[in-house]
TrEMBL record:
GO biological process, one term: regulation of DNA-templated transcription
Keyword ATP-binding attributed: yes
SUPFAM superfamilies from the UniProt entry: P-loop containing nucleoside triphosphate hydrolases
Gene3D superfamilies: 1.10.8.60, Homeodomain-like, P-loop containing nucleotide triphosphate hydrolases
Keywords: ATP-binding, DNA-binding, Nucleotide-binding
UniProt protein name: Transcriptional regulator containing GAF, AAA-type ATPase, and DNA-binding Fis domains
Pfam families reported for this sequence: AAA_lid_14, Sigma54_activat
Amino acid sequence: MAFHGNPLYNTAMNQTPPSILTDLWEEACRSSSFPQGEEKALESLLFNTFSKIARENLPGIQKNFSCTELALILFPSGKEFRHGSEGIQIYRISRNTPSPEVEITTSKGPEALLIIEGAHLEGRIARTLSYLPGYPSWSQGILIPLTGSTGDTPEETLLGALLVIPAGTRETKTDTDTDTDHRKKLKSYIEATLAPPFAGLLENARIYRHAHRPPRIVTSHSKPRNPQEQNDQAETLVGTRGGLRNVLDRIESVVPSSLPVLLLGESGTGKEVIARRIHHLSPRHEKPFIRINCGAIAPELIDSELFGHERGAFTGAIKRKRGWFERAHGGTLLLDEVGDLPLPAQVRLLRVLQEGTFERVGGEEEISVDVRIIAATHRDLPGMIQQGAFREDLWYRLSGYPIVIPPLRERQQDIPALAHHFCQRSSRRFGIKTQSITEGDVDILRAYQWPGNIRELASVMDRAVLLSEGGSLDFHKALERIVPLGPEPSHNINPSSGGCHTEPLCFFTLDEAIEEHIRRALRRTSGKIEGPGGAARLLAVNPHTLRARMRRQGINWNEYRPGQTLPDRGGTPPPP
Ligand SMILES: Nc1ncnc2c1ncn2[C@@H]1O[C@H](COP(=O)(O)OP(=O)(O)OP(=O)(O)O)[C@@H](O)[C@H]1O
C-alpha cells in the first residue's frame, strides 16, 4: 500500500497537531459559503486545508499516501433520516483531476432503512452505501462517521461520514495484514484530527440551514424589546454591512438555540459586543447577561465566584453565596478570557456543560442551571492544549459553534463607518463639535495597522476630537501619541548594553517588553488604570484585561501613585 513504512507518517499518527484543528475551524468559521451549501466550504477545506495538513504533517503524503478519492456523505437530519436513505448527499472529490472539481451526487436511490442507535454505526453506513448504485468499491475505503449534536440536546446524531479511499484500493482485491494495519492507523489519525472539526462544520451548516428555512418564523421573543433597544443595537455594532457580515450571519444562525458559542479574536475586536448581541437577539434576552473576566479573578476564588459557596466553606465565608452560574439562570454567561481559567475550574466547567449541574463550594446539594455559555478568548487554545494548559475535552465542548472575529486590519471596509460612529460618540462625550471626517482622514486610518483593533480606533478618535478643539481632525497627531516616532531616551536605554540602538544587546523577551510597556503607561498615568487618562486607554486594552495582566506579571499600580516610593527599576528596562 502506498503509505507503507513511511516513518514520518508513523510519527504523525501519534500526535494530534493542533494547527490542523485551528486551520479547519478557522476555515469553517470564516467561510461564508454555508448559505450556498457545503460544497464551497468543502472545496476550500479539502483542497486547501487537507493538502496543507498533508504537506505539513504527513510528509511524503502526495508521493506515498495519495488517497485517490475523498467523499463526504451527508445524511438527512432527524426524522427524515429515520425514514430512509433518500436525500443522502455525496460529495465526491477526486484528487486525480487536474483542476479539482467537487462532484455532487444526490441519491434518489433505493430506500434503505437506516436507524442510528449508536452501535455498529460504521457497519450501517457501509451497508447503506452498498445499496447506492455506482459505488461498489467504496466498502474498501476508510469510513469515518461524523457525529455531532444539532439541537439543544446533548444526544449525538449522525451528520455524515468521511470516506477516504487510499490509492490502489480499487485494484487491490484483498488487503494484506500490513495494509490493514496501516489503514487502521490512518483511520485513527483521521478520526482524531479531522472528524471532530468536520462534524462541527456540518453541524454549523445544518444550524444555518435550519435558521434560514423559509418561511422564517420570527417570534416576538427574537424582536428587540423596544425601539430604543433597536437603536442601541444598531449603534453598538458597526460593520454589519461590511466586514462583520459573515459574523452577523453566524450570530443569526445560533441565536435561536442554546448551543455554546466560542468567540475567537484579538483583543479589542468586539467579542464582548458580539456576545451581548447574541444575548439580546436570543429568546433569553429578558434574563440576565453576565460577563466574567476569568483572568481577573484570583485563582483561589474562581470556584467560589463561578459556582458559589456554602456558609463556612472556607475562612471568611460568613454566609451562603450564589455563584455566577446560578445568577445567570435562564440567561447568558460570557466567560471572557476563558483561556485564563485554571485547570481545576476547567474540570468543573466541563461538568456544567455536559450535565448542567454543579455543587457550591463546601456544599453537597446538586444544583442545575439553564445557562447559555459564550466563551471568548484572544489566546491560542489549541496551542495551550498541547502545553497541557487547556483541556481538550473542554475545547470541544466550548467550540461547538466558533465565531472568528477578524482583526480591524483585515476588515478595512468597516473603517469609514466605525470612524464616523466614534467621531460622533467622542464629540457628544466631550461636547466638542468637529469638522467631519474627510476621505484623506480615512486614508490615514486605513494605512494604520490597528494592533489594538476597534478599542484603539475609539481612543484615537477621542484624542483626535480633543486635539481638534472644534476645528479639523488631525489623525497624524492623534496617532503619533500612540506610536511615538522616536524612542523615549530615559526609558529605552539599557545601561548594561550602553544603549538600545544596538539591537542584539538589548533584546527583551515578549513578557519583559510587555511588562515594561505597562510600567511606562502606569508611570504616565500615575497609576491610574481605568477611565479617561488611565493606562488602559493609553494601551488600548480593556481595564480588566490590563489588571489581569498586571497581576500575572506582579505589577503593583500602587507603586506609581503620587507619594509612593518608585520601584527599583524606575525607568530602567529589564535585563536582556
Ligand atoms: N463592531 C463594533 N461597533 C462598534 N463598536 C465596537 C465594535 N466592536 C467593538 N466595539 C467597541 O470597541 C471596544 C472593544 O470592544 P470589546 O470589549 O467588545 O472587545 P473584546 O474583543 O471583547 O476585547 P478584549 O479581548 O480586550 O476583552 C468597546 O468599546 C466596543 O464598544
